[in-house]
Design a protein that fits this description.
CATH topology of the largest domain: TIM Barrel
Low-confidence stretches: none
Shape: globular
Helix content: 25-40%
Largest sheet: 9 strands, mixed
CATH architecture of the largest domain: Alpha-Beta Barrel
Mean pLDDT: 96
Order of helices and strands: EEHEHHEHEHEHEHEHHEHEEEEEEEE
Radius of gyration: 23 Å
Strand order of the largest sheet: 15-14-17-12-11-10-1-13-16
Oligomer: single chain
Structural class: alpha/beta
Number of strands: 17
Number of helices: 10
CATH superfamily of the largest domain: Glycosidases
Distance between the termini: 29 Å
Length: 446
Amino acid sequence: MSAKITVDFTAKEGLIRKELYGSGLHIFVANRHIADNSETFKTLRFPIVRNHDWSLNNPNQRMIDVHHIFPLMHLDPADERNYYFAPSDEVIRLVYESGSKVFYRLGTSIEHTEGIHFNTIPPTDFNKYAEVCAAIIRHYTRGWNNGFHYDMKYWEIWNEPEGHLNMWSGTDELFAEFFAIVLKRLKAEFPELKIGGPAHCTFRPRLIDMIKKECDKLGVKPDFYSYHMYANSLDTPTNLGNEPRKYLDSIGWTGVECCINEWHFIRAWGGVHSNITEESYRRTNEGRDGLMGINSAAFNLATFCIWQNSPVDSAFYYGCGTGNWGVQFPSRRFNKNYYSLLMMRDMVYDFPNKVAVSGGTDTQRAIAGLSDDGTQAAVLVSDFCGADMAIQLDIKGFENPSSVSCIALDDLRNNDPAECKQDENGLYTLTKTEPGAAAFLLVLKK
């Protein structure tokens, strides 16, 4: 029997952090007539979504990326006629009308070409590129060029610049110079907005130092530092949830937010970005340990629990389309990640008042919350590949509920009803169907 998890509903700890429930998902435009995912997007209720790689998920549509909106860099960035906003306007309209906001990545989507690159080549004129970025911000926040006044607070300069060559084909030093020039220009016109970046592939102290050196020369600093996490150990979200904050503080960037704006479980990159064979693809993408399997789903929920008590300011789950990185298979059947996100959604919106949780084994993570009116309580438990078959909950401060319900997510169940009874000692037991990854959402009503 596992070590019990103790929940105290009288020990309130603020709110379950909605800002950790961001994503890269959006409403598709290109194939909307035949594959409309609007209801899926609305159901998940992400408060904010990051628009990196959206052009890749909307084939034949020139959108979001700077080179799609302003394709000819020899033209005048002050001339409204030189911009093409229509597809970007449409996808952003759909997102805002659905109740979410947009975190805007300025730059390019990832470019998996071979031997030659087109969009990841450093701009020839950094100052002119900065003017184009300023025009895009102006269009979406100040109405310029038949634009809008969206509440679009976060603007990110580039993505994974150390991902040579598929994201930046110049040197690290050149990128640091580019970043500082663009940042200074944008902060000068838009001091009310949060402008930062650069979405490093992971926490990169050496590259942060390069950027800080260039920013110090120009007398600016970013509003946020963004980075990514792809992992399969619970040590990773723990470390990446804490170490960047410590480092930023140590170099004097105490007010710079920590933003993990891509994160996802991954078994190995072989089969996804390298060494792709039928066997490696199947092993990395399919089954329990694949990108879409139950291990991924349990990792998602454990990470969400871990970051609740970390200094991470915001997080965005990387799910953009169908297949590998999305929430649906090409057949449109939902994968395990989708059901894990539903559990997060319910905690964020239905049980937002966080309470104290302690105990459990090394593979288990949990959060608990109360509804705003205090008549309902919930406990979310993730067991990431644990061997124990049962999880015990000791619940305090919500005795004698009028009803108890539970749903389970595992290799066989997709948020299906599950039995959860109290024993003679008042402990609730969550029972797994087999050893390995599983998650449970227990709901109590007065």
